[in-house]
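Ligand-bound model needed. pyridoxal-5'-phosphate.
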Amino acid sequence: MTEQAITFAIQPSAHPVPAAARAEALAEPGFGRVFTDHMVTIAWSDGRGWHDAQLRPYGPLTMDPASQVFHYGQEIFEGLKAYRQASGAVVAFRPRANAARFNRSAARMAMPALPEDAFVEAIELLVTQDREWVPAAAEHSLYIRPFMIATYVGLGVSRPSPEYLFAVIASPAGAYFSRGVQPVSVWVAEEYTRAAAGGTGAAKTGGNYAGGFIGQLQAVQHGCDQVVWLDAAERRWVEELGGMNLFFVYGGGTAGAGRSARLVTPALTGTLLPGITRESLLTLAPDLGIQVEEGAISLQEWQADCESGEITEVFACGTAAVITPVGAVRSSSGGWTIGTGEPGPVTMRLRDQLLGIQFGQLPDPHGWVHKIC
Ligand code: PLP
Ligand code: COI
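Prediction:
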């Protein structure tokens, strides 16, 4: 089947944020607090398919309170970043990988697929229009949030919504964690789980996060930064954090970082999110001579292998968090420190490599960087 051609109407904002206020927002962007001047929207209905594509001023969506998304949570989203490189070019990192995952999430949530070209074009239009919002400071970027919601008005649940809205918004981003690259601590969720076999764990859908906030709340109440989820069946296997995948570093030592290191990350069992950063690192690490393995790690092994010194580092990875060291684990029965509790050399080497590719300071052998403007 040929993909439906989507043409965007362009409506620039008559009241963009003044340059001084934008500069102030860019000075300390934090994460996801301020938004650029424009957004993209595209409507979909059963009869018309994708239509009414617009680049328009950023602003509230007016919706009927009976819209299905408010009641049944039929919603998916993505997260990717645009980077300002030293040459002045603005690039995105692997936007087609996000487009493909968006459509896998859509399929699981019984929502329509969006042609990948339209997903990428929507991002290109928004970032080009709002390019002044792409930060120039080291490691800062423009976080891009595409999403789709069910807009049909009605409370019946006899079928998925026959109407949707796709939108893209963007927000300048600094470090996701306020302490930057300092190691985070994680709290093991024992009472609650995030995703079970056959559920929605591999989809990037709001409900996974809504159901996970209680675990995150408990993490914060116990003085930790993030919740770590175990598998729902046995409550034994480590899956991922609330918004990041996990990597365990075996060996590596401090001298000659990475030479004999081996990375292990939980395999994609269907209950965790297939992170694009995770997949990129599985490709990048062997380029640096670091072995990689997708496998199963139990909570017990995590503790024992840290205590024996076999696990030397652990890090979390994701678009928002980039690569963030994990320094300590806590649970109702106590806790343990990982390595020295400080950022490890393998973690930092991979982080430098990934950021180097994204910011154009290192070669991009896998063609991941997508020039926008
Ligand atoms: N796991 C969860 C639950 C997430 O929300 C994210 C963030 O997107 C990730 C993992 C990492 O995915 P990615 O690297 O594609 O950002
Ligand atoms: C991302 O990294 O893009 C996410 O969606 C994770 C979220 C915790 C911000």
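The chain has two domains: 8-173, 184-358.
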